[in-house]
Amino acid sequence: MDVRSDRIRESSRAALEDRDLQRALGRAGPLLKSMRNAGMATLDRPEALRERAHAVKRETMARLDEMLTLLESRIKEQGGQVHWARSADEANRVILELARKNRARSVVKGKSMATEEIGVNDALSRSGIDVFETDLGEFIIQLAGEPPSHIAAPAIHKTRQQVSALFARHFGAEPTDSIPEMTRFARRILRERFLAADMGITGVNFAVASTGTIVLFENEGNIRLTTSLPRTHVAVMGMEKVIPTLEDLDVFLRLLGRSATGQKLPSYVSLLNGPRRTGERDGPEAFHLVILDNGRTRILGDPELRETLYCIKCSACLSFCPVYLQIGGHAYGWAYSGPIGSVLTPQLVDRKRACDLPYACTLCGACAEVCPVKIDLPRLMVALRRRYQESPEWPGPSSRVERAGMELYAKALEHPALYRLVSRLARIVQVPFRRGDRLVHLPPPFKGWAAHRAVRPLPPRPFHSRSAGSPGHPEEVEDE
Ligand code: SF4
Question: Which of 113, 252, 255, 259 most suits a substitution to test ligand 1, by most atoms within 8 Å of the C-beta?
Answer without folding.
Answer: 259
